[in-house]
Amino acid sequence: MELSEFSIIERFFTSKSHKHSQVQLGVGDDCAVLGMAEDCEWVVTVDTMVEGVHFFPNTQPEFLAHKLLAVNLSDLSSMGARPVAITLALTLPAFDEDWLQRFSDRLFQLTDRFEVDLIGGDTTSGPLTLTLQALGLVPKGRALCRHQAKVGDLIYLTGFLGDAGLGLKVVQGYDLEDSQSVLKRFHCPDPRVAIGSIILPYANACIDISDGLLSDLGHVLKKSRVGANLYWEQLPLSSQVRSYIYETNDWKMPLNGGDDYELCFTVSPENQQRLESCLSEQPVMCSQIGVVEAGDALFLTKSGVRESVVATGFQHFG
Ligand code: ADP
Ligand code: MG
To answer: Is the pTM of this model over 0.90?
Structure first.
């Protein structure tokens, strides 16, 4: 049976209740209605994934739902915002019930896990394109921006670097013995939602790693009009990435590989101790990987040798 646009919305994308008091009206009217949040500001982001550009044809719908939500929640987290609501615009080549059920199941699993409400969207037919907008709240005037890194700040990174990049290589045919964890990091990244809120009082600047550490940290440095030095030996590399580098000598992969969705943030030395004691209670590891310096260049110190490095991360129209 061919499903209509309206029955798709009702069956797969309408939640029975909302988690947040700000959501006064969700899916089902011309617009959603959000209440104001006292002493807070709304933080809004949107990301699109196009088949053949951002993901391979026939990618599992669970992976698509997961990544689509994760990349947006990662953006909110990098501003220090708590996620509240999402809207979802789907362009589908066909109304495939099985695909929709799997996509919707994973989406709602994650909206429960990250406590976010689906409040609206749009459903159209055409080449497979997925767009998700996320709205979060941050205390007034406190959003963590890219332009506030200061000379002397310590640079931190959550989790591991390069796992998703290696996952992509495996998808493209690289033969790795123990590939399960890097494939998971590529297809189903974990947005660092809890950490975004924890670092908010201590961090000066923050960004999430979507296009590669050098490229994304480069944005922070440029906006803050500073430079930085990274320490190779302090980069958090998994055993899989280490053995990939050992085998291929491609040590730049973790620096330029995208899709990690880890948070990279800067903290003044005065805040280091308080920050580290808050982070020590988290299940996700955080590593200090460098320092912010005067100037505008990005350096890497590797085996005692300091050299300037340039990003070769992914760019559309690049
Ligand atoms: P309109 O024609 O007024 O734009 P639509 O028919 O596009 O309304 O959508 C009807 C309702 O369903 C709206 O509340 C809209 O936000 C919601 N909606 C449509 N598609 C989706 C979707 N994929 N996910 C969640 N909500 C959706
Ligand atoms: Mg519409």
So the answer is: yes
